[in-house]
Amino acid sequence: MPGLVSTMLEIGNQFDHYQIQSYLAQGGMSEIYRAFDLSARREVVIKIPNQFMRGDPAQAERFQRELEVMATLEHSAVLKGLGSGVYNWIPYLVTEFADGKSLRQVMELSGAFLPEKALPIVLKIAEGLAYCHARGIVHRDLKPENILIRLEDSQPVIMDFGLALTKGAHRVTFSNLTATLGTPDYMAPEQIEGQRGDARTDIYALGTILYEMLAGRPPFCGDNPLAVMAQHLNDNAPRLDTINPKVAPTLAAVIAKCLQRRPDARYADMMALMAALQNPASADLSLLEPKKKRFRLGLQQSQMIGGIFIGMGLMAGLVLLAVLLQALLR
Fold first, then answer.
1. Buried b (16+ CB within 10 A) or exposed e, 216-244
2. What is the pLDDT of residue 86?
3. Whole domain around residue 328: which residue ranges?
4. Which of 82, 130, 259, 287 could form a disulfide with 94 if both were Cys (CB 3.0 to 4.6 A apart)?
């Protein structure tokens, strides 16, 4: 249920010139409400910081950036931003209202998809992402929770551009951000390593989503986020056509290329991925063969191992010094 903000935004209450109709969802940073715009006379969605992000000045900047990104996009697969503001010192973002279920909800109801059901959805998402990429916008937080499947026409709609990367945009740092925010299931290795990412980062995330749709589970699972991130950095995803025999090896190879740990080993852009999904016969089946793992160390692991080697060197030096002193005293 909503946190501190929900005590203010109850059904029927007015927030600025919006009348709250229902509570929709809670994300890592925000709470989301369905509302009626009393000025424009239309249904909208309002996003408001949750209790953990309240008072963080970066949140207002994040909403402003998200609005600027969404306001420039006009595509059937992208949610439209309508406005933003501050009311009673609380920043908020307003988007169009699209009636539907998140892809996560659809996946939970359906279980593993047949390829002929999953591919049309993913191709429409890829089309929307290609449109964004052509305008210099990388989503960087693509996951089933951020994709809405519209009820009226089953059109997938990409939402939540709060972490989107645009040309020349600087990083937005949140003082209240915690390590538990979000899910690592769809993060590309370069994101885990702290890099900003590019269009190939979205390709990795979309490949992970398609893998989960067809397998009924993500390619990497673990007891905690750190275990999952370590697998993204170091492991190869289990071969998809062995998990779901209804997936052709050629399609499994296309998805395997999306999940390559090095960005330059993935498809160069979303258009290339769309072409491969529509014609998987030319896929490189060698991508399905087991590969020797190339262990990649994170920053903390590197520092720890470096400290161990330094400690071993000091210990060896002390032992050598003791031997020399003992020899001199004889």
1. eebbbeeeebeebbbbbbbebbebbbebb
2. 86
3. 299-330
4. 82
Active-site annotation holds for 56: no
If asked whether residues 111 and 246 sit together in one domain, one would say yes
Tell me, yes or no, whether 55 lies in a domain. Answer: yes
- Quote the Cα angle for 180-129-115, to 5°: 85
Place of tokens 């050598």: 320
Tell which of 48, 81, 96 closes a domain.
96
How far is residue 112 from each of residues 92, 153, 277, measured CA to CA in Å? 36, 21, 18
Q: What is the CATH number of the domain that holds 44?
A: 3.30.200.20
Report pLDDT for 178: 41
Whether residues 261 and 155 share a domain: the answer is: yes
Is the model more confident about 267 or about 295? 267
Query: Quick one: DSSP state of residue 118?
Result: H
Q: Do 282 and 162 lie in a common domain?
A: yes
For the chain, the average pLDDT equals 84
pLDDT of residue 303: 47
